[in-house]
Amino acid sequence: MRCGCIYWVDKMLNKSFYHLGVLIAKHPGYFIIIPVLLTMLCMTGYQQLKYQIDPEYLFSPINGEGKAERAVVEKFFKVNYTHRFNVGRITRPGRFGRVIVIPKDGDDNMLRRETFHELRHLDELIQNATVEYEGELFTYKDACARWENECFQNDILNLDYIMDDIESGELNLTFPIMFNPVTWDAHAFPVFFGGTKLTEDNIIISVPAIQLVYFVTADTKRQDAKGAEWEETFLKVVGKAEDSGLFKHISVSYFASRTLDHELEKNTRTVVPYFSSTFALMALFSVITCMMGDAVRSKPWLGLMGNISAIMATCAAFGLAMYCGIEFIGINLAAPFLMIGIGIDDTFVMLAGWRRTPAKMPVAERMGHMMSEAAVSITITSLTDLFSFWIGIISPFRSVQIFCTYSVFAVVFTFIWHITFFAACMAISGYRERHNLHAIFGCKVQAMSVAIKGESDLHFYCVYYNMA
User: Fold this and answer.
1) 314-371, pLDDT tens digit by residue?
2) 213 or 458, higher pLDDT
3) To 5 degrees, how large is the angle CA 146–CA 149–CA 154?
4) What is the longest distance spanned by two Cα atoms in the chain?
5) All domains of the chain in start order, with CATH
6) Contact status, residue 35 vs residue 421, Cβ threshold 8 Å
7) Percentage, residues of the chain above pLDDT 90
8) 218-225 contacts: CB < 8 A, separation 24 or more?
């Protein structure tokens, strides 16, 4: 019973694809024009692009335990950026800027007058940078996270009041906390110092690195958007100061909540230049492998059209997915490379089926037999790819879900475009072959089989004449 079912499916596919091949051979123009128009129509969906780059949204499990635990913490210990900001309550990145500063002159100790002077200068640059959002100009002091009416401060900078005493050895810094004898700030050194070297009595000997952090209010969507603009300005200001050599004694590394987003986006952009070169190499490979010694039976243009069919299908699939409101991520740019591989595989299967048909058979019948023979192979290949990506959609990671969803669209479109658009190109090539036209230039030539027969007749004539 099971074998009978498989036989019935195989027979149905062969019969359906045979009729499709005959239909395409009789009306190839429709099967070329319609896919091209549909591709152009679907590509208008790129206007609906929703580009998603949030790392937590994309790469954390949808129902991860961490999210549930965070929700409990946020319920009882909610962060209040505008009035009672407490660093210990932070459960999300929010909007912030962070700098890590190390000595530039080879000395591994930041506790020096000249380095703290430049730290103060860096702090002033960051706090006084002007940001524009929806026509409104503001600085860090206007958007900072606050305790009562005071901005969150990097009070470690107040060590500059006692730096002369620290350098001379008259005053020791005790780890992990001490009170500033001038400002009476309670300095929690582990928060700001990195790689601290201590004596046995927890006296600080040297500090190789210092970090400064700037938190921006992000309680509402508008505040979050303003914070994002401040982060952009923060990255530009600090980056410009570091790149221009403004600081002689310190080297600055900088980071913001958007830095990871930017790096992911930068990685995405690095893939784009490979599109043209990859397409060119695959097209060249396809063209060469589709060529034969016979100038009539050779089909180099079909190798190229197989690649074009896959690219058209992928573009149309992506456009339709965007019309459906599916978010787009940078990882999706790997899909065209996969689709080109699938398309080339289908191309070779269909060409092999064509070459197994008798050359004297009418083009419509050859197309029918070719499609009938290739039907099972390309259908099973496409279904296998389809199910593989379909399984990926149930992944708990949204990045995998989105990539697999776009790939499912692309596999379906690649299959349909190959059995219509590419098949129509094969039909036109079949008519060209039928009329003995050159495979590349389209001019009238003699088929190799006829040419070989002519050479044999000439050879027989020459031999007979010499014997006579």
Assistant:
1) 999 999 999 999 999 888 988 888 898 898 899 999 998 988 988 889 989 999 999 9
2) 213
3) 50
4) 126
5) 2-58+270-435 (1.20.1640.10), 94-256 (no CATH)
6) yes
7) 33
8) 218/81, 218/94, 218/95, 219/80, 219/81, 219/82, 223/81, 223/143, 224/95, 225/133
d(CA 170, CA 166): 6
* HEC per residue, 426-456: HHHHHHHHHCCECCCCCCECCCHHHHHHHHH
pLDDT in tens, 50-90: 988 888 888 888 888 888 888 888 888 888 787 788 777 88
pLDDT tens profile 23-38:
999 999 999 999 999 9
Q: Is the pLDDT of residue 454 over 70?
A: no
Q: Which residue, chain included where needed, has tokens 């009416």? A: 149
Q: What are residue 350's phi and psi, to 5 degrees? A: -70, -40
The two structure tokens encoding residue 5: 């079912």
Binning the chain into helix, strand and coil, the percentages to the nearest 5 are 65, 10, 25
Mean pLDDT in residue range 381-393: 91
Count other C-beta atoms under 10 Å from residue 211's C-beta.
Answer: 16
CA torsion angle 400 404 406 412 (round to 10): 180
DSSP 102: E
Query: 395: which 2 tokens?
Result: 């992944």
Helix orientation angle between 398-417 and 300-323, rounded to the nearest 10 degrees: 130
User: For residue 50, what are its two tokens?
Assistant: 């929703």
How many separate helices (H) and strands (E) can be counted in the chain?
Answer: 17, 12
- Going through 203-302 in order, the beta strands assigned E by DSSP cover 204-206, 209-216, 250-256
